[in-house]
Amino acid sequence: MDFNRFMIKGKLSEGSFGVVYSGIDKETGEEIVMKICKEEDMNRIESNVMKLLNRKGIKNFPKLIYSGTMPKGPGLILQRFGYTLDYYLTEREDLFSYRTTI
User: Which CATH fold topology does 3-101 show?
Assistant: First the structure.
């Protein structure tokens, strides 16, 4: 994989499983998300789930572009699929009322 084809725009979030960056695939112009996992086992599990969902044609899941070793560790490159959960929790509080989450 030629990682030079991806341009990182910025960090979206960081959690106990890793760091997520937004970026662009310079070859296709497609917005991507690059997730660098802290543990290789977690990366392998998430990658296998994403491959299965993509293979089955399940809707509303991002396309897996790459999974494996990356310059900063094990990770995934996925199609960007809308906003982050953090955006909805902080900017669109009306979407997560007690009533909408039950």
Answer: Phosphorylase Kinase; domain 1 (3.30.200)
Handedness of CA 90, 95, 100, 102 (dihedral sign): negative
Amino acid making up residue 45 = I
CA dist 25 → 5, 21, 36, 102 (Å)? 6, 13, 16, 38
The whole model's pTM is what? 0.74
55-91 residues labelled b (16+ CB within 10 A) or e (exposed)? eeeeeebbebbebeebeeebbbbbbbeeebeeeeeee
**Count of all residues that appear for the chain in the document:** 102
- Domain residue spans in the chain? 3-101
pLDDT greater at residue 21 or residue 50? 21
Question: Which stretch of DSSP H or E encloses residue 14?
Answer: strand 6-14
Give the pLDDT confidence score for residue 56 in this predicted structure.
86
**24 — pLDDT class (breaks 50, 70, 90):** very high
